[in-house]
Amino acid sequence: xxxxxxxxxxxxxxxxxxxxxxxxxxxxxxxxxxxxxxxxxxxxxxxxxxxxxxxxxxxxxxxxxxxxxxxxxxxxxxxxxxxxxxxxxxxxxxxxxxxxxxxxxxxxxxxxxxxxxxxxxxxxxxxxxxxxxxxxxxxxxxxxxxxxxxxxxxxxxxxxxxxxxxxxxxxxxxxxxxxxxxxxxxxxxxxxxxxxxxxxxxxxxxxxxxxxxxxxxxxxxxxxxxxxxxxxxxxxxxxxxxxxxxxxxxxxxxxxxxxxxxxxxxxxxxxxxxxxxxxxxxxxxxxxxxxxxxxxxxxxxxxxxxxxxxxxxxxxxxxxxxxxxxxxxxxxxxxxxxxxxxxxxxxxxxxxxxxxxxxxxxxxx
Length: 365
Fold this sequence. Notes:
Residues 152-307 form the Calcineurin-like phosphoesterase domain. This is Calcineurin-like phosphoesterase domain-containing protein. It comes from Entotheonella factor. The chain crosses the membrane at residues 20-37, 49-67, 79-100, 112-133. By secondary structure, the protein is α/β, with parallel strands linked by helices. The protein contains 12 helices and 12 strands. The protein folds into 2 domains: 2-132, no CATH class; 137-362, Metallo-dependent phosphatases (Purple Acid Phosphatase, chain A, domain 2). The chain has a 6-stranded mixed sheet with strand order 1-12-2-3-4-5. Strands 6-7-8-9-11-10 form a 6-stranded mixed sheet. Helix 3 (50-67) crosses helix 4 (73-107) and helix 4 (73-107) crosses helix 5.
């Protein structure tokens, strides 16, 4: 009986990668290939691209993803941006097609007119989303913590994604942040998402007019993490890697991003936490809130979700994370999930806003 159970468990483990990639490829084909096949069918174009063209169309972004580091840096970056925005357009068109197909069965509009209406709606949505993605709002949140001795202004920046976004975005972020006159600036990961982003491209960070604490996100792990760590330290940022640091007013804890759901609790149990001090935890993703509360953290700052970035993708994000944006509390801990200061991949936001968050923290006085 034990041998049979063991063999069944091994079979289940061995089939998991097959199931995962099967589902992934089906979703990938639906989003990236089906929309254009459907538009081509509706238009009834005299020239039919054929299966080879569609396979290349779908495989293009994946090929760029796996070969960009072998290409000249500028070419690799531009191709990556082009492919990600193509993926974004395909996703928007796919959403409109999901809405269109039931209506098509009921009303049977002209296929040619329907195709152009779908393309027009996609282009208009992408244009609105692209303009929205360029806007960076300032959100001010007032919180009171009796453990604080002084009033503080802390600014959170998250998910800038230099690589997907051009380095010039940093200049705008730094100028807006300095205008807030913060006491501290805290960056909660995914500052960078492509390899070989140079110190010169990141140099505006050195002009932030307050001490800067930074923790890594998942995208830094995917690229040249050790080099990113060194570049940011060179620019004067405090990079917290599963460690804590103390200021006169409070204790700051930074934990490396990880896919392991026990990461936060495990790392906090290994750190020297001051139970009496006001404590701020920086962690990239909104996970482990219960463990954070058990360790007496007062304020947890996270990002990662982008608030979905594009509707209806926010519905998918909500299936993964309990808290997708904004404030939440659990026991003594207040959690804030930033919707992100930049954008990942495509430079489009629909149903969400880019944000620099300003926390006005008041204490006993």
